[in-house]
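Sharing in case it's useful to others searching the archive later.

Someone asked me privately for the predicted structure of DUF2157 domain-containing protein, so I'm posting the question and my answer publicly. Question first, with the sequence:
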Amino acid sequence: MSTQSTTRAVVTALIEAGLLDPSRAGEADPVVAGALEHGTEVAVPLRRRMAEIAGYVGGAFVVGAAVLFLGTTWTDLSLGQQVGLLLVTALVLVAAGFVVVGTAGGARALRQPEEAVRNRLTSVLLTAAAGCLSFAVGLWLLDVMSNEELAVMLAALAGLAAALLGYLVAPTTVGQLGSAAAAFAAIPSGLGALSSGGLGEAWFGVLVLALGVLWLLAAERGWWRELLSARIIGCGLAFFGAQLPLGAVEPWGAYVLTAAVGVAAFAAYLRTRAWPYLATGVVAVTVAVPEALSDWTSGSLGAAGILLVTGVTLLVAALLGLRLRQEAHEQHRNGPHHHAMT
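And my answer, the predicted structure tokens:
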């Protein structure tokens, strides 16, 4: 296979995996061709991989010992001692993370392919430090504030800020997950802080859905380095948020939002050809249609009827997904020729 054919095959594979925007295929061609020509593939030495494994194992032993110790003595400690232990743990983790950054030659060098091991290890350390900081802030605020929901929200936001700072130093999927968990935790506590009676599952779902949409917008703008992971996280948040109003007094909001998520996901797939959007569209439509029919018929379809409708909907959604995938392939295949003609 010639270099040109190999380049086109690699670029096509990147687009199909959702790692490259089809509109930038022309820019990617010379980059991939140069990489193939000069053989820039980086092999991680076994010694470095073993060092990474040793770091994880050592960290697991430390965490296990801490959990064992604190599990038996935590209630005997004063609030100041509890907060102090968490803060010291966070500082130790941050210090260890920056030692790893220093051995790599700085944060910029940490992002190079040959430093992937150190990047992952640093991300784990800094994300764990963000979790310790969040718990420490939460314990302290719960003691000094009368509004517990507000205290939990502020603690979650502190963890979110720390996780995002850690992500800026060492961007990995672990940092994304830590940030997503902190942002998600801040939503129900924030709703509780804003209303003494709570604003209900409907608003909770809408805000989680909005978080997912914002996550996806950040992904498509390139703010998250791990594009595939960001799309999966964003789609998961959007789908979960759309389903949360299902337990409300009026469950119609759940299937309406879920159907909207499905349509938007299919539209995003046509633009990006990223499989998380296609999978989300199929799942969302498959879930929304039976929920709507069950609500409209007041549950008279029964279990067998719902199962049948779900199966038919899944089949139709899968066929629609295959059709959209074929159209996306045709658009990509005809794109370069079309641009050449124009």
